[in-house]
Amino acid sequence: MQEMTSRPLPMVLFALASATPLALFALGILWGGVWVLAALVYMTVFAALLDQISGLFAGDAPEGAEFPAADAMLVVLALGALGLMPATVWAVAGDSGLSGWGRLAVFVGAGLWFGQVANPTAHELIHRSPRGLFRLGGLVYCWLLFGHHTSAHRLVHHRHAASLDDPNTARSGEGYYAFLIRAWAGSFRLGWAAEDALRARRASKPGLHPYAVYIGMAAVCVALGVLIAGPLGALAWIALAAHAQSQLMLSDYVQHYGLLRARLADGRLEPVAARHSWNAPHWFSSAYMLNAPRHSDHHAHPTRPYPALRLPPPDQAPHLPWPLPFACLLALFPPLWKRAIRPHLKPWRLAA
Predict the structure, then answer these.
(1) What is the sign, positive or negative, of the torsion defined by CA atoms of 44, 299, 215, 140?
(2) pLDDT tier, 6 (very low <50, low <70, confident <90, very high otherwise)
(3) Among 29, 39, 141, CA closest to 89
(4) How many domains does the chain have?
(5) Whole-number Cα distances in Å, 257 to 87, 172, 281, 331
(6) What is the model's pLDDT at position 159?
(7) Which residue segment(s) compose the domain that 118 sits in?
(8) Which residues of 308-335 are buried (b: 16+ CB within 10 A; e: fewer)?
(9) Do the Cβ atoms of 326 and 248 come closer than 8 Å?
């Protein structure tokens, strides 16, 4: 059993875990019936059951290992997300022939995929150096009506994570819904301010303001929804984007909940350490979320490709006792979440 726990996640598992539901949703939109149910079950029950098989693929890739297929897979998933959104809008609001229950299942399941797979895909892409990959990640976020996250995540969250200066760091005792309003508005505003500051330093070549792109693309997406299925299509696009955004905000809420960096004597924040992010060792959700639950290592090495992200031991960083998707589900019920996470948070608040 010890040998099994030392194995890192192979690329083929990342590909199968993240792309299989995309194929199931495509079949469900075309043919409905059992395919719609299979896609929804995959994103919920099936994933939760596989995560309970502990010890599988919990190891780290060798330091310095290269993954030539990693970026190619991101491109495939991003293109899949760009195609799945209009297809889902048509399935939910258009003349798709799906039953009312079928439309609801596609809406719920596809929204989960956008939030739990397309979001980590875009997140990985906006941390890539090639401009084409970066812009593709930004386009996926624009497709989710969340383009400003492209700026806010890199320029605000990574600088201020685990501090009161970061809108996307949840305070201990703060409920998810209060956090959602504060974090969404705060990241939009501070991301805009950070882009303004960058433009001021590049006065000779300011270019088009990124927020003009984000807002313009949001208008384009809503117009596409109208073209696909009239006003109901626009509402479906907005609702799907809100569903996906809620998954992203839940991840932010859980992964930094209650963990704060100390202020040094000179007023600066201490460096981000492994103890400032929650991690989850559960193998299957890590596979389809592209190792997003290995959050501490991402903050330590933002450009490290997802197959190479390392899981800090539980004596160096807090580990969630549940898979990240289940922790996010708990967070939807603030009293239950606060009671459940309190004993796991306590030693890390004392350590800080």
Answers:
(1) negative
(2) low
(3) 29
(4) 1
(5) 35, 6, 17, 10
(6) 95
(7) 2-58+67-260+268-351
(8) bbbbbeeeebbbbebbbbbbbbbbeebe
(9) no
Amino acid at residue number 126? I
pLDDT digits (tens, 9 = 90+) for 273-330: 999 999 999 999 999 999 999 999 999 999 999 999 999 999 999 999 999 999 999 9
Both tokens of residue 56?
């599988």
Q: Which of 146, 144, 178 is nearest to 331 (CA)?
A: 178
Q: Which two tokens stand for residue 345?
A: 């948070």
Contact 74, 120 (CB under 8 A): no
pTM score, whole prediction? 0.94
Which of 57, 16, 67 is CA-nearest to residue 308?
Answer: 67
Q: How far is it between the farthest Cα atoms of the chain?
A: 65
